[in-house]
Amino acid sequence: MGSSGGGAEKLGIGEIRDLINLEMPQLKEALDPSKASTQLGWACPSCTFINKPTRPGCEICSMDRPEGYTVPGGHQPDPAELRRITQEKEAVRQYQQEKKEKRRAEGGWPTEKPTTI
């Protein structure tokens, strides 16, 4: 009566590990402790997506970056990250310019008085 019936066989932990390595290599990589320490970025507290270090909010769900997170020193943004940062800076510049022009048009912005000689 060494069989547990139903054709099910019991596998040892080593055999299970071997099956995981053969059938799900991406799981093996994700569970590799040496890879975890090199993870760059921050995990969203809401959806757990790993965001690029410089992102102010989650790329997937827009949740704010955790307050305690700091961009690692010496971090070099990849080209996609640099493009996003550049676009964000340009958007802020355009917003500020529009705001300035709107105030000026409404008369709420001080104008420079011409100097007379």
Mean pLDDT: 79
> Biggest β-sheet, characterized?
2 strands, antiparallel
Identify the strand order in the major beta sheet.
Answer: 1-2
Helix content: 40-55%
Q: Give the percentage of residues in beta strands.
A: under 5%
Poorly predicted runs: 1-5
H-E string: HHHEEH
Tell me, what's the shape? rod-shaped
Structure class: mainly alpha
Separate helix tally: 4
Q: How many E strands?
A: 2
Rg calculated over all Cα atoms? 27 Å
Measured distance between first and last alpha carbons: 112 Å
Protein name: RanBP2-type domain-containing protein
InterPro entries: LUBAC_E3_Ligases, Znf_RanBP2, Znf_RanBP2_sf
GO molecular function: ubiquitin binding; ubiquitin-protein transferase activity; zinc ion binding
GO cellular component, one term: LUBAC complex
